[in-house]
């Protein structure tokens, strides 16, 4: 038995994860993330900015970056660190992360995503935390680019036709979508669908809105959902849950394309 234990012990090896130990350690707090995206049209100057805080057990936080969700092995590289906490106004430029990853700035396209992960140093160990920033390369928000004549396309719901998106006169980050119910041949006597754009990352929330009182053999067809806005071409990639008083048709993917 002793010989067997010694044999097993001798065969054990330590596996080193270059990203740090997982599922352990302190999770840094990320606050005041603004801006949270990179302006693809100003690659030399665009940056994200945020604050970081940790417990006294942490002596250093390392920021490592990856590109388009490729986060394994050598594709995750360090870009910056912090040793004084709380760390206020941490700034990471797009040209810094591109250089660290050996990516020419000209190769960065709208919709590309840089993922910044926070590793904590606690004593002699490095821990990979769940604190992550996904900073997309986007265009500056332009209300004229994200409104006007559109086309709604959904293979899930089986529609392809014209709609209109207008900007709220008091809040440019609120838009209204008219015409979705009409694509089904319904009388759109309710609505329009209210959608709210998050100015930090351009995620979109569609509030539950009844669009038509009568829908086929049902009543009060309503849309609600979530998605993302491409500020460079005005495209909304949405997932709508469509319901009536009598039940739900489930979730369908829609693409709202500027015409």
Give your account of this protein's structure.
It is elongated and about 65 Å long. The strands form three sheets. Strands 10-11-12-13-14-15-16-17 form an eight-stranded antiparallel barrel. Strands 1, 3, 5, 6, 8 and 9 form a six-stranded mixed β-sheet that branches. Residues 1-19 have low confidence and may be disordered. The protein has helices at residues 2-11, 94-100, and strands at 21-22, 29-31, 38-39, 47-53, 60-67, 77-82, 87-93, 113-122, 125-138, 148-154, 159-167, 174-178, 193-197, 203-215, 218-230, 235-244, 247-258. The chain contains two helices and 17 strands.
Low-pLDDT segments:
1-19
- Summarize the main sheet: 8 strands, antiparallel, barrel
Q: Output the helix-strand order.
A: HEEEEEEEHEEEEEEEEEE
N→C terminal distance = 76 Å
Inertia-based shape: elongated
DSSP strand count: 17
Q: Biggest sheet: strands side by side, in what order?
A: 10-11-12-13-14-15-16-17
The class by helix and strand makeup works out as mainly beta
Provide a brief overview of the structure.
By secondary structure, this protein is mainly beta.
Quick tags:
single chain; 259 residues; mainly beta; eight-stranded antiparallel beta barrel; six-stranded mixed sheet; elongated; disordered N terminus
């Amino acid at each position: 038995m002793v010989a067997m234990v010694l044999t097993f012990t001798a065969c054990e090896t330590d596996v080193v994860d270059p990203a740090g130990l997982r599922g352990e350690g302190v999770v840094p707090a990320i606050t005041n993330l603004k801006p949270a995206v990179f302006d693809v049209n100003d690659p030399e100057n665009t940056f994200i900015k945020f604050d970081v805080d940790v417990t006294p057990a942490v002596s250093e936080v390392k920021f490592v970056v990856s590109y388009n969700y490729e986060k394994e092995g050598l594709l995750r590289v360090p870009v910056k660190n912090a040793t004084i906490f709380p760390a206020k106004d941490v700034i990471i430029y797009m040209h810094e992360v591109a250089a660290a990853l050996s990516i020419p700035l000209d190769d960065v396209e709208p919709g590309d995503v840089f993922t910044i992960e926070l590793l904590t140093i606690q004593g002699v160990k490095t821990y990979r935390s769940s604190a992550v920033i996904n900073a997309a390369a986007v265009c500056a928000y332009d209300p004229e680019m994200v409104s006007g004549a559109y086309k709604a396309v959904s293979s899930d719901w089986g529609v392809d036709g014209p709609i209109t998106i207008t900007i709220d006169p008091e809040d440019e980050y609120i838009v209204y979508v008219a015409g979705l119910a009409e694509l089904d041949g319904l009388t759109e006597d309710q609505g329009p669908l209210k959608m709210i754009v998050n100015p930090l990352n351009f995620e979109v929330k569609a509030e539950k809105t009844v669009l038509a009182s009568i829908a086929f053999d049902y009543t009060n067809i309503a849309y609600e959902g979530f998605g993302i806005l491409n500020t460079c071409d005005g495209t909304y990639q949405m997932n709508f849950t469509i319901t009536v008083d009598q039940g739900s048709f489930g979730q369908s993917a829609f693409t709202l394309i500027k015409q």
